[in-house]
Amino acid sequence: MKRITLATLLLTGGMTSAAGASAAMHEAAPSVSIVAEYLCTNRPPKLVAFRAEATGLMPPLRLHWNLGNGKEWEGPKPPPQSYDDGRYDVIVTVTDADGHVRMTSLTIDVEGEHEH
Containing domain of residue 49, as a range? Predict the structure, then answer.
């Protein structure tokens, strides 16, 4: 039986000007999050689909993914990824039209019972 554990960490960048800091007080701070969906698989590897959700950033957005399994992807939604037993850090970096950069990560722990 496989056990999957997710942990998320949201990182946001600082404001670059006093005017920007003042405006941020009246609006929600820009943020990025990763949504992970586990696809039905009975055996390893575990398939996971990802997408990024961003708020408060100026479109168009450029997204760069480090998928934690040795693969990278450019765009909002990478193809489903496979993960065997272990710990994987998935990182997405989002750059908006104004050059603001936000980054967030998601840790995936995959543990399984092995037949002896």
Answer: 2-16+28-112
